[in-house]
Design a protein that fits this description.
Elements: E1 5-6, E2 16-17, H1 30-40, E3 48-52, H2 58-65, E4 70-75, H3 78-90, E5 97-101, H4 104-114, E6 119-124, H5 131-142, E7 148-156, E8 168-176, E9 179-186
Parallel strand pairs: 3-4, 3-6, 4-5, 6-7
Antiparallel strand pairs: 1-2, 7-9, 8-9
Helix pairs in contact: 4-5
Amino acid sequence: MEMSLRIIGGSARGRRLASPPGKNVRPTGDRVREAVFNILGQRFEGWSFIDVCAGSGAVSLEAISRGAERVVALESNKERCRHIQNEAERLDFSDRLDICHGDARGALSNLREEGGASFDVAFVDPPWVEEGLRQQILDLLFQSPPLCALAVCEFSVGKVEPDVPEGARKIRRADYGNTSLVFLEVAP
């Protein structure tokens, strides 16, 4: 299915994005991305951002367009990693984007072991058919010391909301059509 994607805000506002390769890609739609960034705030100058299970890369590219200084896109599919890289080059965003190919759990564990990898925001959107993966990723992000200050988790409205990991607290839930978002932050 060909999906029309575009950058919603920031320096590349209105720029179209190419459809990602593969049949089983469910990019975060324009309306949901707009809601996420409106809730988080319009400008991300100096922020670091990690997009877990990046898929199309639309969320990563949106974060850069809005001023994020450092963005890491984690994706297990090599073809999609190349797609994200191509889109970043086309938008002249390559200097602020690191693409990490591999399993999200392994990549997050490696970031933790390397130390010093901490992000202002994590966006978590694993394949909806892999519900267990969503919880594992959230648990890894908030394990002490946490890898992010705030996480946004996307999932299907009809599915069970993820458990709040130890070390985190839920601050908001929002539903948009068949998509739900849960916002979690490091517990004080």
